[in-house]
Structure formats: C-alpha cells, structure tokens
Amino acid sequence: MDTDTIRRETELVRADWAGRGRHWDRRADEIAEQAARMNAPLIEAADIAPGQQVCDIATGAGEPALSVAALVGTEGRVFATDLCPEMMLGARRRAAAQGLRNITFRTADMLALPDSDSAFDRVICRFGLMFCPAPARAAAEALRVLKPGGRVAYLVWGPREETTMFVVFVAAAEAVLGPLDEVEEIDLARPFSLGTPGALASALTEGGLTDVEEREVRFAPRVPADAPFWQAQFDMTFGRALDGAGEAKRHALKEAVAAGFEHLREEDEVPLSVHVRIGTGVKPTG
Ligand SMILES: C[S@@+](CC[C@H](N)C(=O)[O-])C[C@H]1O[C@@H](n2cnc3c(N)ncnc32)[C@H](O)[C@@H]1O
Fold first, then answer.
1. What is the pLDDT of residues 190-228, one digit of tens each?
2. 91 near 115, Cβ under 8 Å?
3. Distance 132 CA to ligand 1 centre (A)
4. What is the 8-class DSSP label of residue 134?
5. Does the pLDDT at position 257 exceed 90?
6. Would you say domain 3-159+189-221+272-282 falls under CATH 2.40.400.10?
C-alpha cells in the first residue's frame, strides 16, 4: 500500500474513532471490568514484569495500559499511545482516579511513534493493530522502539462469526439498517481484518520480528440473561452511527439486539463464545 493511501485510510480511521470517543469515555469503567479477562493472556504473552518500560499502542479507554502500570510498579513506566485524544479521555480520568503516577499518555499513530530507537522492554496492543492500514509496517515501527531482546504482544479479534456478540449485532443491524456495507458509519469488517489464522503472525514476521508465535484464545462465558451485558459494546459499536439516526432507529436496533440474545438464552443465562488471537515476537539481539 502506498504512503498516500495509508495516510487517507488512517484519516478515515481517526475520524471514525474521534466520533466514538464520547461513547467509549462513558463506558470506560464498565468495559474495563468486562474485558479484564482479555488482559490476562495478553499480559502473560508479553511477559510483563516489575520495572519494565512498556508502550501500549491504541490504548483507547486505557486497557491494558492501566493494568500494566500497576504491574510494572514505581520502577517501571507505561507510555499509553493512541491516534485519537478523544479516545483517551476515559483512560486519563481512570488513571487520575487510581492515583497512577507511572503512566504517560501521548497522541500518536502506531506507524510513527514519538520515541527514540530501543526505548522499550515491551510493546503491547489490545484490539488496535487491525485498524492500521499497514499492520506489517506498524510491527516494524514497534521493532524500532523495542530494546534488543524485547518483546511485542498483540491481541486481535478472530473471525467475526466466532464471537457471539458480533453475530447478534450484525444480524440486528442488517435487519434494522439494511446491508452493512452501505451504512458508512458502521464498519464491522475492519475490526476482523487480522482474524484469519496466520494473518497476525505474517504481519509480525514481515515487520522483522523473530520467534513469532500466534495462538488462538477462546472464552465461553455464560452471562446472566437479565443483566445489560451487551449495552456497553452496543454503544461503542453503534453509538456514532446512531448519533444522528433518531430515537426510533436506536430503539428498533436495541430491540433487535435484545431479541437476538433472548433467542440464545438457556434458562437464566446466555452462553457466549469469544475468539481472539494473540501474536508475539522478539527483537533480535544480533
Ligand atoms: C477497539 S479500540 C481499542 C482500545 C483498547 N486498547 C481496548 O482494548 O479496549 C481501538 C483503538 O485503536 C486506535 N487506533 C486506530 N488506528 C490507530 C493507529 N494507526 N495508531 C494508533 N492508534 C490507533 C483507535 O483510536 C482506538 O482507540
């Protein structure tokens, strides 16, 4: 992909996330709790330890940056980075509320990090790499800022049809709003662009990392059917599209999503499946 196309695509992504910022800010505390289970395998894969200098890319509402700041302790530091300052509002608020002093927020594209070469022990990224139009170049940029022997760990969605929440969302949105490729404000393709097994590992290898590994992580939570478990993700996914759509459409879409989950209900619970993929790589020491 040439530089102009990358720039144009990145601008589209930036505008999209800027429009979603307030919805993510509003849900920042809630999603941090809900998605805590996503942090554990990523933090383990990254081999985070006290004292490390860590760059969290595409930090959004602040995870895993805030959890990692607590782990690296006062001798370590986290540099939380995102393309959109609007997305980091909730992260800044939560960092202040938690009294975290070892975290710095910066606005930056993952393709052009504001750091010197070999600055970090670890580069991590949760649900961000797939939004970059040139993921192998983003991996090369992570390699540049890593110390020799340092490690990257990326977490991305697996195939869309293997995570229940998105299956229900897509069916509801198509029923209420029409074919999704015609609804400009909703992009339910890009988040899954690295979901095919092997795609993440290929990007990391092409970016120059060694010892590249990719693994599948699946969760099968059973959530209480009467709890509003899907509302935060709903707002974050559809909030921008519905901002100008009017109350009737918002209501119809919510009803369709609720009906979709109700259909899956087993007694008091809804069984969900979640498929994410984790890719790791190391900067060669030689
Ligand atoms: C799904 S959110 C992930 C937020 C957080 N890491 C989490 O897991 O909850 C995706 C984030 O990627 C950011 N992003 C998209 N493209 C980016 C780029 N080229 N460089 C840095 N951040 C980017 C967006 O602004 C957004 O905050």
1. 999 999 999 999 999 999 999 999 999 999 999 999 888
2. no
3. 9
4. -
5. yes
6. no
